[in-house]
Amino acid sequence: MARVLIAGCGDVGTALGVALAADGDQVLGLRRHPECLPAPIIPVRGDLATGEGLAAAAAGVTALVYAASADGFTDDAYRAAYVDGLGRVLDALRGARAPLERVLFTSSTAVYAQSDGGAVDETSPTAPSGFSGRRLLEAEALLLGSGFPASVLRLAGIYGPGRRRLIDEVRSGTATVPDGLSIYTNRIHVADCAGAIRHLLRLPGSRADGLWLGVDDEPCERAVVLDWLADRMDVARPRRVAATGAGARQRGGNKRCSNARLVSSGYAFRYPTFREGYAEVIAALGLASRPA
């Protein structure tokens, strides 16, 4: 039985924790206010910003999943959440002499700066222009140089229950599409975020080491996704607006991320494209008026 610590146990961590516990693992969910976590996740009060509670949580841990999120979209918030927080947990694990077999860090495709719609995989260069990507790369380097068996899962845009931004934008009529531009976006359902992490934790030996892209099977033009959502909910399709400047080309990213390494390792997506995932979310909200 593994003893898994999920540091920053939010919606992805909770879904993961429930699945791991069902497998028979002992799962500890660490967050500032852990009382909201469902059984059988063991709630652990801890603060990644101050280090409070980390030493006790680290005892006997065989796997760490670092799935924290920043408190805000600022450089300071990203450094605190991803670099400083991760460093504190790794120090706590060293101090506790935890028998670690795997540390997995959830990063983001924001580490890629490609904006020409080209294909991206784990070997593609990373040169992000924004602070978010730079801080995530800093955290990745910290983990990969830690000496622990390490995996980095770079997740694309996460959607699913409770993550309905695109649905709300389409329904409200605020979603727009730059006219005449092919802007590719990448996404992954929250259930597949948890599923991919669980899969990597189960890979034996060094097979899970290194970088992984957590995206579904179909990088897709933003316009196609938004139009599909509108048709599915029987509302007006998003307005086409004049495309001006590089900002229009980069809105939402413009790259086609590949999940080939993850799939070839044996992971099967529950929601292979946005259609299956969003269809379920829309149906659960009672908003569907047309078949998928």
Largest sheet: 7 strands, parallel
Residues in helix, %: 25-40%
Main-sheet strand order equals 3-2-1-4-5-7-12
- Low-confidence blocks of residues: 246-252
Structure, described:
- The protein is of the alpha/beta class.
- The chain has ten helices and 15 strands.
- It has helices spanning 11-22, 54-58, 75-95, 131-144, 165-172, 190-202, 222-233, 245-250, 260-264, 274-284; strands at 3-7, 26-31, 42-45, 63-66, 102-108, 119-120, 150-155, 157-159, 176-178, 184-185, 187-189, 210-214, 220-221, 239-241, 256-257.
- The strands form five sheets. The chain has a seven-stranded parallel sheet, with helices on both faces.
- α1 packs across α6 (190-202) and α5 crosses α7 (222-233).
- The termini are far apart.
- Mean pLDDT is 94; it is low at 246-252.
